[in-house]
Specification:
Number of strands of chain A: 2
Largest sheet of chain A: 2 strands, antiparallel
CATH topology of chain B: Rossmann fold
Number of helices of chain A: 11
Radius of gyration of chain A: 19 Å
Number of helices of chain B: 10
Oligomer: heterodimer
Distance between the termini of chain B: 31 Å
Radius of gyration of chain B: 17 Å
Structural class of chain B: alpha/beta
Helix content of chain B: 25-40%
Strand order of the largest sheet of chain A: 1-2
Largest interface: A-B, 18 and 25 residues
Strand content of chain A: under 5%
Largest sheet of chain B: 6 strands, mixed
Strand content of chain B: 25-35%
Structural class of chain A: mainly alpha
Chain lengths: 295, 240
């Protein structure tokens, strides 16, 4: 083979697994971005910082309040989501009706402020967060070892993504959300409290980011820069999938994680750029994204 | 009519001004709709008929003056609160949600009061809709869209309906079906404010007319005592 070394089956599945793990985070984060973009028409550049806050929230819940990982999975998204709702009410709501560029600038600035504050207090190095004892260890699948925690992250993320898709596409609440996204004026004239729905939608998208942060805490260390590291790839995922497409963001998230993993096996030099190459190609061929509606 | 005269009007509009951005569209609109009436706003394109409905609903940029619904002032309320008082709109563009199925569109507006039409009743009025429930909202014909736009506000319990050109661009057979529906709703005690360009259609269902010109009410007529002079006036003002 031209790569000069044989590829073992363990290597292949190992990278596939890492790809799926990264894909889980891409999917959760780009799903939140898609939900927020659909309803608010805002590209939420603060998403990475809020993901990081989720991880820090889990860390503090454990070390300051003795609340373990399982509590953090519930409490951290609620707390960070509430913080997001507050941001929407006090800051983003003022930008309604203005050019989307204002939302981009505001959330980008917020991301820098939040990340800077955390860096100031906690330094750039990481804080350790242990894998919960129930999920430590690994199982032998015959062809590879599968760490239990990683299997959990993939399964749980996929379930949350599916549940979110189902709630938006198949329930009455989701119909309200889709109606308010498509025509907020008429949805409101039917008696729906659209401003409150917008606040809750932003809070929900932020909560998804925080949940991804909690899931990431035991895998990566809890670092102020963790959001900035991942968010560039996540935005590429959103562009590839199509802005605002719910299903597109989920599928693209997982798929690009896997593509990245496979690239590490077959051509490791390109593994950091492959997503952006795909983005460039998609933008050339289908500017609305793979799942986006062509205007 | 003695009792109806004593009850507060369902809708009383006084000195209503409205703007879209910098454009001043309504210049002091005054009229009222009494309980159980079908009242039609007539007028040429751009006279302010649609804007009047939107201003009552609270979905224009800015509005001043007075809009009292069942005796209650609503000028300061947001459109969702106006809707919750029992005001329902069927907009000119129909505004069927393409990202929702027909069933989801039908079930979308929340109930605002008891006494909305049951689904079986709605399907008796509009049998076509029952067959299209699973379709996407964007896949309907113009007539089906119009039926859905009317049907979905009958479920909610709102007793005051504002219909903006419900017959525009539709085939005569569907226009007749919509006329029959409006007559049926009137018999059931709904109060209706209609906007129409089609005077011959309006004539079959209305109790009274107001003619709008340049953002205010120019003149009002009752259907019952239209005489040759009134018809002459309408002819001059509307070209009918």
């Amino acid at each position: 083979m031209f790569l000069g070394h044989a590829i073992t089956i363990q290597q292949l599945f190992g990278q596939l697994l890492i790809g799926l793990i990264n894909g889980s985070f891409y999917a959760l984060l780009s799903l939140g971005l898609a939900v927020i973009f659909g309803m608010l028409n805002i590209v939420n550049f603060a998403h990475g910082a809020l993901y990081m806050m989720g991880a820090f929230c889990a860390y503090f819940l454990l070390h300051e309040f003795g609340l373990n990982y399982w509590w953090a999975l519930i409490v951290a998204p609620l707390m960070v989501g509430a913080f997001g709702a507050l941001l929407e009410r006090t800051l983003l709501a003022r930008l309604r009706g203005l050019d989307p560029l204002y939302g981009l600038l505001l959330t980008f600035g917020l991301a820098l402020v939040v990340q800077g504050l955390f860096q100031n207090f906690f330094g750039a190095s990481g804080l350790p967060y242990a894998i919960p004892p129930q999920l430590s260890g690994a199982r032998n699948l015959g062809f590879m070892f599968l760490p239990n925690y990683r299997a959990w992250v993939i399964g749980f993320s996929a379930s949350i993504c599916f549940a979110t898709w189902f709630a938006i596409e198949k329930t009455r609440l989701g119909a309200y959300l889709r109606a308010a996204t498509e025509n907020p004026t008429i949805a409101r004239a039917f008696g729906l409290n659209v401003p409150r729905m917008i606040t809750l939608t932003y809070g929900f998208g932020v909560a998804l980011a925080a949940l991804a942060g909690v899931l990431a805490a035991p895998i990566n260390q809890v670092r102020p820069g963790m959001g900035a590291d991942i968010i560039a790839v996540v935005f590429a995922v959103v562009v590839i999938g199509g802005m605002g497409s719910i299903l597109g963001s989920i599928i693209t998230g997982f798929a690009l994680g896997v593509v990245e993993g496979l690239t590490k096996v077959f051509y490791p030099e390109a593994s950091n750029t492959v997503v952006f190459v795909i983005m460039a190609v998609v933008l050339l061929i289908r500017p609305a994204g793979l799942f986006g509606k062509v205007a | 009519m003695a009792t109806a005269e004593k009850a507060p009007p369902t809708l009383a509009v006084a000195g209503l001004n409205a703007w879209y951005g910098e454009s001043h569209i309504l210049h002091g609109v005054d009229f009222e709709v009494r309980p159980g009436e079908v009242v039609t706003l007539l007028g040429r394109n751009g006279a302010g008929k649609t804007t009047t409905l939107k201003a009552i609903m609270g979905i224009v940029g800015k509005r001043t003056g007075s809009v009292a619904f069942a005796g209650r002032e609503t000028i300061g309320l947001s459109s969702d609160r106006v809707a919750r008082l029992g005001v329902a709109i069927c907009p000119e563009e129909r505004a069927i949600f393409a990202s929702l199925s027909v069933r989801e569109n039908l079930m979308l507006p929340p109930r605002v009061a008891a006494g909305g039409l049951a689904l079986e009743r709605i399907f008796t009025l509009f049998p076509n809709l029952a067959e299209r429930l699973a379709s996407g909202g964007g896949k309907l014909s113009g007539g089906e869209q119009q039926m859905l736009a009317i049907a979905r506000i009958l479920r909610t319990g709102a007793r005051f309906l504002m219909l903006d050109e419900p017959t525009e661009g539709l085939a005569p057979v569907i226009v007749r079906q919509i006329g029959a529906t409006i007559a049926e709703l009137k018999r059931e005690g709904f109060t209706i404010l209609l906007v129409e360009q089609n005077f011959n259609f309006a004539r079959t269902v209305s109790d009274r007319y107001y003619v709008m010109e340049h953002g205010h009410i120019a003149i009002g007529f009752a259907n019952a005592d239209l005489d040759a002079n009134d018809m002459e006036q309408l002819h001059v003002r509307l070209g009918v």
